[in-house]
Amino acid sequence: MELKVTKIGNSLGIIMPKEVLTRLKLDKGDSIFITATPDGYRLLPYDPGFAEQMNTARELMRKRRNVVNELNK
User: Fold this and answer.
1) Of 27, 39, 46, 59, which one has the greatest count of Cβ atoms within 10 A?
2) Which residues contact 16 (CB under 8 A, 6 or more apart)?
3) Domain ranges for the chain
4) Residue 25 pLDDT more than 80?
5) The SpoVT-AbrB domain covers which part of the protein (predicted)?
6) What span, in angstroms and rounded, lies between the C-alpha atoms of 19 and 1?
7) Helix, strand, or coil (residue 52)
8) Which pLDDT score is estimated for 64?
9) Looking at residue 15, what DSSP letter applies?
């Protein structure tokens, strides 16, 4: 899929087709994140750094379930 860079106000931007927005579950005002990969760039509808932190937290809570239960009391 080819997208063209166009002038939007005083900035440059791209217009994404509706099917791309639907697949990424994006709506007006949402943020997207761009990460560099060995093959180029990747667009994500979430912050990959935050997702990694949440996965680490989930793993820690699973390992330390007894401590988490005590803190919940």
Assistant:
1) 46
2) 3, 26
3) 5-72
4) yes
5) 6-51
6) 11
7) helix
8) 83
9) P
Residue 57 to residues 54, 63, 65, 67, Cα–Cα distance (Å): 5, 10, 12, 13
Structure tokens at 45: 């509808």
- Lookup result for tokens 């912050």: 47
Q: Is 27 exposed, middle or buried (0-12, 13-18, 19+ CB in 10 A)?
A: exposed
Longest CA–CA span in the chain (Å) reads 56
What 3-state DSSP class applies to 14? strand
Find residue 7's DSSP bridge partners: 12
The predicted pLDDT at position 6 comes to 95
Q: Look at the block and give the residue holding tokens 């860079």.
A: 5
Q: What is the average pLDDT score of the chain?
A: 87
User: DSSP class of residue 4?
Assistant: -
Q: Kindly report, residue by residue over 42-64, the tens digit of the pLDDT.
A: 888 878 788 788 888 888 888 88
The pLDDT assigned to 43 comes to 84
